[in-house]
Amino acid sequence: MQPLKTLISSAPNWSLIALASALGIAAAGFRAFESENTKKKRTELKRQKELRSLAARISIYGQTIHQRFPTGDVVVGERDLAEELRKRPETVVTALNLLLNEQKVQRAPLSGYWKLNT
Which end of the chain has the least Cβ crowding within 10 Å, N or C? Predict the structure, then answer.
C-alpha cells in the first residue's frame, strides 16, 4: 500500500521533470538547426543590447560622480572607465560613441578622454 501511495504522489513531480526536459531538448534543437543568417542576427541583437546596457551604465556612472562632486565637469578616461566597469576598452569606446550620437557625451580635448554631460 505504501509504495503505491509513494508512486501516486511522485507522479506530478515526474511529469514536471519530463516536461522541463522536453522543453530543454526543444530549445537546444531549435538553436542547433537555425540558419547562419538567424545566428548572425541573434548575435548582433545581443551585442547591441549589451552596448545599450553599457551606455546606460556609463551615463549612470557620470550622474553618480556629478552628484558626488557637483562643481565642474565629469571627465573620464577610456581605460579608467573600462576598468571601473570591467569591460574591454574597445567596447567602452563603442558605447561612448553611441552616447556621442545621442549628445550625452563630448570628446575632451585630450585624446582618450570624454566629458560626460550630466
Answer: N
